[in-house]
Design brief:
Distance between the termini: 37 Å
Number of strands: 0
Largest sheet: none
Strand content: under 5%
Oligomer: single chain
Structural class: mainly alpha
């Protein structure tokens, strides 16, 4: 039997990729719904690109998006102009009235209990979670500001968030990560020992566990930049 390292690496990637996707998806759901700290917790500022666009794109654009051939009720939710226009059947009504969810047909529709008025309609097999409805409500209360796609927005350097465990971050990215964890009531794991760190980086780079020689060399290296 001939051992082929490249095939071993390929098989490990085939296993690892779905596993990582599953873990990431679960983590996203946990953070999206407020984690264990408070399932009803909403962000201080609801951002269109980060919070609202994904909801509208997934649940609303099929009938109210950029495809004119599939668009219903002459209503577009993917553009600010379309979302702020008067309703086709009620010129006095509007899809969105900035600052007032109860005058915004978008919120009234997605929060309706009457299935004949509810959007998306039950027949579509699509629905918003209570958390997503609250996100839309808060977004409208905060002004319902649309944004260009993030790819067309010039990046700006944000200020570093305040964190309770200020000794934990080792760089700027750590502060953002820790701030998100603390907001959800989580705390970071203890730092992994050197054996685990070496195994992780070796599998990431080569797809194989570290050699005995490499492990012995790494464990003997007591310098601060041994991992790097």
């Amino acid at each position: 039997m001939i051992f082929r390292p490249h095939l071993a690496r390929k098989n490990m990637y085939l296993i690892a990729i779905p596993l990582v996707a599953l873990i990431a998806g679960g983590a996203w759901l946990l953070f999206r719904d407020g984690g264990t700290a408070d399932p009803e917790a909403l962000p201080d500022v609801v951002d269109y690109n980060y919070h609202i666009r994904p909801i509208l794109s997934d649940r609303c654009y099929k009938c109210h998006g950029p495809d004119a051939h599939k668009r219903e009720a002459d209503l577009r939710l993917d553009t600010e102009e379309g979302a702020y226009k008067a309703l086709k059947d009620d010129p006095k009504g509007h899809v969105i009235v900035a600052g007032d969810p109860l005058k915004s047909d978008l919120f009234l529709r997605v929060s309706a209990t009457d299935t004949s008025y509810l959007m998306p309609p039950p027949s579509s097999n699509l629905a918003l979670t209570p958390y997503e409805v609250k996100l839309i409500e808060k977004w409208i209360k905060q002004g319902a500001k649309y944004k260009k796609h993030w790819a067309f927005i010039v990046p700006s350097k944000p200020s570093l968030p305040e964190v309770a465990k200020s000794s934990w971050p080792k760089n700027e990215i750590d502060r953002f990560t820790l701030a998100a964890m603390e907001k959800q009531g989580f705390k970071p794991n203890d730092e992994a020992d050197k054996e685990r760190l070496l195994k992780r980086v070796s599998l990431d780079i080569t797809g194989l566990p570290p050699s005995i020689e490499l492990q012995e060399k790494f464990l003997k290296d007591k310098s601060d930049d041994a991992y790097e």
